[in-house]
């Protein structure tokens, strides 16, 4: 017998009328139920921000997930909350990605817990804004070590294991849009992310013969406490609206990044290899196009401009 819950329907319709943005497709989970069932995924930096958002969705899709970073208390709290929220299996492992022995330990603990590992998501990062000439060499080191060395440490440890065990693997690297074009005031991060992009493309070719795919996502602005506190600190936050330079005039929602990541780590993307997928509402192209700044010209002024040109 088919029954309808009208109360529920009314509630949804009311929501649709009152707050259409809540119903936007990009805020909704995209893949079918159990799309990642049986997969084990390691997310570095998985206790906070975008790493946490991607982990949440992977668990909802049936994956087992190891989250790792330096702060065990943060990881354990997140793991417990996500177990409650999703009913999934989450392992929290302390690991500083700059230290190869800690990376090997994280890998081994994942295999002990889940019986294997299928996906490495290099998401851990460090960043802050500064004129480059103000940086000490240690400040440059700390960012490059977390982002580039951290990514290649994990990639090397996981790749060696997959190759030795004759198992396929999937690597997904979170870079930034400025990995391709560079950016002032975040030079260590831009330098390191460019290296991660090169790593992605190089190994996509070299390790394809072992059944290991490498792809990357280049996100534009997605609000997280970690990024916002370091890139838009108080005195700047009032002057810089991150959405203003995005042609779509909004920042990203975590679920839309999680949807893309879930696709790229799933077997549905089996023919994607060596790709970097930009998800930024058109932001970097807006900065790149010579005449994009003409967006500020009000429509009536174009009559005047055209007249002058034709004269
Ligand atoms: C100049 C700084 C600095 C700053 C630290 N240093 N902060 N220099 N300006 N704001 C210098 C220190 O003085 C020191 O050099 C060296 O850097 C190491 O600093 P520590 O504090 O000892 O390092 P550590 O405790 O390991 O912290 C690392 C960190 C921190 C990167 C500095 O911010 C962190 O833990 N970040 C992790 C999370 C994060 O950054 N998330 C944002 C990712 S956002 P000296 O010479 O004094 O010893 C992102 C998105 C980009 O990547 C795109 C957005 C659109
Ligand atoms: P975040 O919450 O600060 O995430 C960074 C994570 O990296 C934290 O969980 C941190 O945990 C971990 N980490 C830092 N150093 C580490 C180390 N040495 N070893 C292991 N883990 C370490 O910021 P986010 O915004 O979610 O960023 C996630 C990813 O998205 C990053 O790669 C970032 O570059 C990328 N990204 C973000 C945006 C954005 O707008 N948010 C845009 C483009 C790209 P611990 O402190 O516990 O170690």
From TrEMBL:
It comes from the Bacteria. Keywords: NADP, Oxidoreductase. Pfam families: adh_short_C2. This is Short-chain dehydrogenase. It comes from Hymenobacter cavernae.
